Amino acid sequence: MESYTTYRRLIAKTVIFSLIASLSIAFVYGLYIKKRAVDDLARVDARKTSRMAFEALYSAMEKGWSKQEVDAIIVRLNNVEPQMRINAYRSPIVASLFGDRINDKTIREHDPMVAKAMKGEEILTGEDEIRYLYPIVVKQECLACHTNAKIGDINGVIDVRFPVANLKISLTMMINSFIVFFTVFTIAIFILLYFRLNALLVQPLKQFIGMIQDIINKNDMAKRVSLKTRILEVKNIENYFNKMLDSIQDYYEKLQHLSDRDYLTGLYNRRKFEEFLSYEIKRSMRHHHKFTMLMIDLDNFKYINDTYGHASGDLVLKEVTEIFGANLRNADILARLGGDEFAVILPETPYESGFAVVEKLRSRLESTPISLMFDQITLTASFGIAEYPEQGENIEALLTGSDLAMYKAKRAGKNTISRADQSDQDMAAEIQKKGEFLRRAIDEDRLEPFVQPIYNIRTNEIFGYEVLARIRDGQRYMAAGQFIEIAESLGMASRIDQIILSKGLDNRANLKMWDKKFFFNLSTHSLFGGNYLSVIEEHTMKNDQVGVDTGIVIEILEREAIHNVRALMDIIEAMKEKGISFALDDFGSGFSSFVYLKYFDTEYIKIDGEFVKNITVNEKDRIFVKHINQIAQEFGKKTIAEYVEDEETLAVLKEIGVDYAQGFHYGRPHALS
Asked: Is 172 buried (19+), middle (13-18) or exposed (0-12) by CB count in 10 A?
């Protein structure tokens, strides 16, 4: 098992090692200085002392002093420094001419160092005591007295002895030695720290950074860091970073699953389905295969949500997923695109084979009862088929083709299978073109509210205005009839309703038209899914209209109300509590018009213009209008006649007793200013 150390231990070890190294170097350097003192300083000092002794003796000998007098000089020299001993020994040349001194011959013969010095060799020796032997070489001036000698001979040896402790090292040498020692030691310590920290810290961190960059560049969450280090903290960084990568990878895989899968059913979602569809198109193009794509929409699924609740609806979607999955091949791709809409890719499956698969799905779904609370229901679906490449050679074309085929199956009575033909494709292209026009108009803020006045027939005064949507297209304005159906089919109607509502309310506030009613056309889809109540509440609070009749009237299309009577009744009741009124629009155009008078607590009835515009020439239309007005009055509701285009029509309406009227006779839609 590999052992690791901590940074604290590393620093302690480095400090201790540096201390030991410095002490060792200081000790070795001290020995070096001592050796240098012995070898160099002792030699210099001894040479100076020997030279001084020689000069003193030489001066005495020049004066003709006897041997006794010379010995007395030596004694005096030894007395100057008690711990230093100086002796002078004559060479045989001098002894033969002037006579030998006591013990000189014995010392020459028995002291090998003296004998060596007599041969001209300068000698320095000793550990605790320094002994320096200085040979006196014959020079030119010596020949006057030493007639038997020649230049270069040795006349004698001066023997100087003194303890090592008496050596005096110069201050300059000490300072220089300390500077050299400190400089070398500091450099050595820094080099040591540099290489040690570089190896144990910097290199592992550089390796760590490099691995992180590699993980980022390659987006490889499966890769792990492995550092070459003996430092425990660095190893802990490696371990914790790898644990963090484990967590990130786990979250990444979960997010990847969530980004690819529908949270409820576990099926692929729209984004992933389109990726598979793109791949299948490329594969089929390369291998010249056909394949089939299905678009599936459950029939009357909204009824299940409204009747049993959304939780039960979710259970149904899971059951449907099980039914579809059990009747598809492993290679088939099933996805939930949203709501109750599913899609399937049948790889390498032409239309004929694909139709058989779809028929199997349709029949199995229809024949499989689904348990729901204390009830059992059966469910059907509408299926749209698109074949590659006949119905499209790209994703958009296939999605549009199968979507159109699915709506075609819906219109054909549901629980059926349809295939889009060329006319459907042309219609889809036109819808797509108009949808793009609508999106640009919304993005570029070209939606404008126009108003058409509503007059009180008896007083001939303006009672209110109906707010209508228009799109500014250059110098002209497009009426709602030119784009509203496309907007509804593409799910853009609610957005348009909200823009017109907000702008219409702003115009009313800017012009302070608080005494006039403002009628807004909002589809039931907008009422169910929009935040219109909050828009109106914000408007009324800003203009101090809270708790009073707001003067805002919401028009409900009679043909739309049939889809969800109960929910619409609740919405009307909630909004009426906020001072908002309601009008039932296009009354008389459907068979259930009079039934709605019972359920919907509306203040106004707008009589369908189809009955009004021919009232002067068609007796049946006059009877219809008369009875609608009479019943409305009995229910306590006011009536508004549409399509009033001339004075004659107005006269008949006045005779019948209709309350209000609007139409070209009173004024065309225009912008408020």
From this structure: exposed
User: The dihedral of CA 639, 640, 644, 650: what is its sign?
Assistant: positive
Active site residue 250: no
Reply yes or no on whether the pLDDT at 163 is more than 50: yes
Other beta carbons less than 10 A from residue 8's beta carbon: 10
pLDDT at res. 591 = 47
Strand partners, 470: 448, 479
Question: What crossing angle do the helices spanning 647-656 and 619-634 adopt, rounded to 10°?
Answer: 40
Helices then strands, counting H and E runs in the chain, come out as 25, 21
The span from the CA of 50 to the CA of 158, in Å, is 6
* 135/123 Cα distance (integer angstroms): 9
How many CB atoms are closer than 10 A to CB 222? 10
Q: Greater confidence, 31 or 510?
A: 510
Tell me: the pLDDT tens digits for 538-594? 777 776 655 556 889 998 875 555 455 666 777 788 888 888 888 988 887 654 556
Res. 516: pLDDT tops 60: yes
CATH number of 435-671: 3.20.20.450
pLDDT of residue 426: 62
Q: Which pLDDT score is estimated for 642? A: 92
CATH 3.30.70.270 domain range(s) in the chain: 270-420
Q: CA-CA distances (angstroms) from residue 449 to 496, 643, 662?
A: 10, 20, 17
Cα–Cα distance for residue pair 98/94, rounded to 1 Å: 6
Specify the pTM.
0.44
Residues of the chain with CATH 3.30.450: 31-166
| Dist. CA 359–CA 604, nearest whole Å | 49
Fold held by 31-166: Beta-Lactamase (3.30.450)
CA distance linking residue 414 with residue 406, whole number of Å: 9
- 3-state SS string for 143-207: HHCCCCCCCCCEEEEEEEEEEHHHCCCCHHHHHHHHHHHHHHHHHHHHHHHHHHHHHHHHHHHHH
Residue 167's pLDDT is: 55
| Cα distances (angstroms) measured from residue 573 to each of 465, 565, 581 | 23, 12, 10
User: Hey, what amino acid is at 256?
Assistant: Q
What one-character DSSP code corresponds to residue 453? E
pLDDT of res. 593? 57
Q: What pLDDT, on a 0 to 100 scale, did the predictor assign at position 318?
A: 92
Structure tokens at 389: 């490449």
Helix, strand, coil shares of the chain, percent, nearest 5, are: 55, 20, 25
Q: Give yes or no for a contact between 555 and 585, defined as CB atoms under 8 angstroms apart.
A: yes
d(C-alpha 531, C-alpha 565), whole Å: 20
Task: Select which of 45, 340, 585, 586 is catalytic.
Answer: 340
Domain 270-420 superfamily per CATH: Reverse transcriptase/Diguanylate cyclase domain (3.30.70.270)
Q: 605-635: per-residue pLDDT in tens?
A: 999 888 898 899 989 889 989 998 998 888 8
Do residues 668 and 651 make contact, with C-beta atoms less than 8 angstroms apart?
A: no
Q: Where in the chain is the domain with CATH 3.20.20.450?
A: 435-671
Task: For residues 470 and 467, give the distance between their C-alpha atoms in angstroms, rounded to a whole number.
Answer: 10
∠ CA 406-410-414 to the nearest 5 degrees?
Answer: 115
Can you tell me whether residue 387 is helix, strand or coil? strand
